[in-house]
Write a structure and sequence with these properties.
Blueprint (H helix, E strand, L loop, with lengths): L2 H9 L2 H8 L3 H27 L9 H29 L1 H6 L1 H24 L3 H7 L4 H24 L3
Length: 162
Amino acid sequence: MSIFELCSWLEKTSIGTAVRESDWQFPVIESIHVLALTCLVSASAAVDFRLLGVGAKREPVSQVLTRLVPIAWVGFGICLLTGSLMFLSEATKCYASLFFRTKLVLLLLAGVNALLFHSIVYPKVAKWDETGRTPTQARVAAYASLLLWVCIVFAGRGIAYL
């Protein structure tokens, strides 16, 4: 079975058909997706700006992350669920979309960026909290995160138009 055949089969599942053929399901799911994306990107951006020294300078990085990372994870989980439902309803369109493929690659890169930050850079956060100086690696991760999320949002919007 090819990937396109798999996508065609997914579209024909009861969930894919129900979401696609309903007058209200896709718009409601898409709206929830956008709201969850807002939570995810806002929390990530706030962390990134703190790492860059642009916002919340008086708060230790560890406290900012402790408060905002759970919000980002909830947003990500809801985006994953709603994005999957939307994908099921138009899998063959997504398969053919350069924007969709680009978004998936960018999401993977954002995940790798976050994984590298949390596994390599963040474990030394106690030192930054004391000195107030964010290391170069953390600032690079923050710039990369901001750029990736902006591009992910644009790619996601592009899916709807082609």
